[in-house]
Write a structure and sequence with these properties.
Helix content: 25-40%
CATH superfamily of the largest domain: Uridine Diphospho-n-acetylenolpyruvylglucosamine Reductase, domain 2
Bound molecules: flavin-adenine dinucleotide
CATH topology of the largest domain: Uridine Diphospho-n-acetylenolpyruvylglucosamine Reductase, domain 2
Strand content: 15-25%
CATH architecture of the largest domain: 2-Layer Sandwich
Low-confidence stretches: 1-20, 29-36
Oligomer: single chain
Length: about 575
């Protein structure tokens, strides 16, 4: 591994900032203080929306991302990638400063767009030379501000790398670059009789970044989450070196059997850019069933223990292709084009619904699987209702905005759409399926009795839950969504406090915090301590991660969060 290069960054003069920057190190936004004199509508609106200046200096005494180094790095990037592929223009940077979550905006200093693995290597070389932090950027849809650079630096947008390198419908895998999104790969896979595990995020979400992050999909009872379906990766390490994992690393035919071991393909799962950038990945595909059938078990009572038992039964039978419980409010969000439509649909649907989709090579096969499951459910859960398909058709025909065809496509053919209620915050993985009910209950109580006030609590119906079995019901996922107004600071604080409290309680009942945020929690004093108390077995994992990080990223430039000297973060961020 090449020696780390600290010299260039340390040589640069301290704290010199460009003249347009204020004493607080912020670049005034148009219409904000300093740029407009006298009363102005824009200034008033800016004030009301609490728009702040774009910070240029994000650390009191920066070693990384120093103003002088940034301009040298920008020049070097332009030379390496081409003039048009690196910029520090505020109008471009602001497009990367938010996601659909509730984190306040965070700005990078530079955005660059490499077009190849070699370009990514060049970007890391420049970043090491000038000590600039790098944040690999997939599509910026994480909802937890995962791509927000804590201290600014370089946003490395990978969307130009948009090739499907190999697509094999017979052995059912695809080798892709990070710019490939779900819509692109799903469309290509369908051409060869396959499909991929599509989560209910936007069709524009990156397949690689989503698989690295988790990929929670409604087929997870049968096939697992996307993260279980990574065959191998090509990674550019923070030092600029390339690592290839899995069968491809020793020239073997791409197979689905891992090894020979040790196989480090999963090292970058949940590393979230802290250990380098994945520049190619092989993911599993699955056969596309030509025929589908559905049954519609539903339940009006708020008894999630009953719902969890029913899910377990269907999961263990393993006949269904897609399986999840959706609250009426979730159907609303999926199907409605607007908030008004979503609310209307939520009113029309039964409170709890089991989404069960069966696939078959023939219509008869799909129908048979559906009817066997329905009979088994009716026998064990006589308290539930079983809607005939016609009832759903009637419902959708009476409300022309809900198109049944579209509904079926959402769930079993295409990628999903964005939800409509603005920003939201989500739940977590659960160790055992039966723990979903108490965890959900705890979350609902915590979130409806807000910390510090009982005024204007979240109405229970404002929050949506869905439950789904994972790996034939061995484990489970609970999504608990709360909706916030991104522009309302008070609303954000309220949700954050409620969510923090709900999460603490839920962890005591078996919640596994989104499985992989350890890399982002490292160094946050309270969070690291709380995590270690709630899950003592996380301590060795944190130690190993720390060792890996320091070995693979000697200059601490790839998604830098905590300082190597102190082991602590300089700045608190939610994740
Ligand atoms: C409305 C909505 C619904 C959603 N529903 C679902 C759902 O059902 N299931 C689900 O799984 N997710 C869901 N999500 C979450 C979201 O889509 C995924 O978490 C998302 O794919 C991750 O964001 P991204 O792909 O845009 O990556 P980004 O936000 O760009 O990046 C996330 C993190 O990964 C790192 N990263 C990105 N690319 C690379 C790379 N090539 N190499 C190394 N590190 C990299 C980044 O540095 C960052 O730390 C939803 C999101 C929204 C907005």
């Amino acid at each position: 591994m090449p020696k780390a290069k600290m010299a260039a960054g340390q040589r640069i003069l301290r704290d010199r900032i460009t003249p347009s920057v204020t004493a607080e190190g912020e670049v005034p936004m148009p219409g904000s203080r300093g740029s407009v004199s006298g009363p102005s509508r824009i200034r008033q609106a800016t004030k009301e929306r609490r728009v702040v200046g774009r910070p240029q200096v994000m650390e009191k005494d920066p070693v990384h991302n120093r103003a002088e180094n940034l301009s040298l790095a920008l020049e070097a990037l332009r030379q390496a990638l081409g003039e048009e592929w690196a910029t520090d223009s505020p109008s471009i940077l602001c497009g990367y400063a938010r996601d659909q979550g509730m984190q306040p905006a965070a700005y990078a200093h530079i955005v660059c767009m490499p077009g190849s693995t070699e370009d990514v290597q060049a970007v890391y070389r420049v970043a090491n030379e000038y000590l600039i932090d790098i944040m690999p950027y997939g599509t910026g849809l994480s909802t937890v501000g995962a791509h927000f650079p804590m201290y600014g630096g370089l946003m490395m947008d990978l969307r130009r790398m948009d090739r499907i390198i190999e697509l094999d419908g017979e052995d059912m895998f695809a080798v892709i670059q990070p710019g490939i999104n779900f819509l692109m790969l799903q469309a290509a896979a369908q051409q060869v009789g396959c499909r991929l595990l599509n989560p209910s995020t936007a069709a524009t979400a990156g397949v690689i970044s989503n698989h690295l992050f988790c990929n929670i999909n409604t087929m997870s009872s049968k096939y697992g989450f996307g993260m279980d379906n990574i065959i191998d990766v090509e990674v550019v390490l923070p030092t600029g070196e390339i690592v290839v994992t899995g069968p491809a690393s020793y020239g073997a035919v791409k197979g689905h059997v891992a090894g020979p071991g040790p196989d480090v393909s999963t090292l970058w799962r949940y590393a979230l850019g802290t250990l380098g950038t994945v520049t190619a990945m092989t993911v599993r595909l699955y056969p596309e069933a030509p025929f589908h059938a559905q049954v519609f078990p539903c339940y009006e009572e708020d008894r999630l223990d009953v719902v969890a038992d029913a899910l377990y039964l269907v999961a263990q039978d393993n006949l269904s292709l897609e399986l999840a419980h959706l609250m009426n409010s979730f159907y609303g969000i999926f199907m409605g084009e607007t908030n008004a439509e979503a609310s209307k649909l939520a009113e029309l649907m039964p409170r709890h619904n089991l989404l069960t989709i069966f696939g078959g090579e023939t219509e008869e096969e799909a129908e048979l699987k559906a009817s066997v499951t329905q009979r088994s459910l009716e026998e064990h859960f006589p308290m539930m209702d079983y809607l005939p398909a016609e009832a759903l058709l009637d419902l959708t025909e009476d409300n022309e905005y809900v198109d049944f065809e579209k509904w079926v496509k959402f769930f079993n053919v295409t990628c999903r759409v964005m939800r409509v209620r603005g920003s939201f915050f989500i739940g977590a993985l659960i160790d055992k399926i039966e723990n979903m009910a108490p965890v959900e209950k705890g979350m609902r109580v915590a979130c409806t009795n807000q910390v510090g006030t009982t005024d204007d609590p979240l109405a229970p119906d404002d929050a949506s839950t869905y439950l789904q079995p994972y790996h034939m019901g061995r484990s489970a996922y609970l999504e608990y969504d709360m909706y916030t107004n991104q522009a309302d600071k008070d609303d954000l604080i309220r949700i954050m406090m409620g969510y923090g409290r709900a999460t603490g309680g839920a962890m005591a009942k078996g919640m596994v915090f989104a499985a992989g945020l350890t890399a982002l929690i490292k160094g946050i004093p309270g969070a690291e301590l709380a995590l270690s108390v709630a899950r003592p077995n996380i301590i060795p994992l944190l130690k190993v991660f720390t060792e890996f990080k320091m070995a693979l990223d000697p200059n601490n430039i790839s998604n830098r969060r905590w300082d190597y000297d102190t082991g602590a973060v300089k700045k608190i961020s939610l994740f």
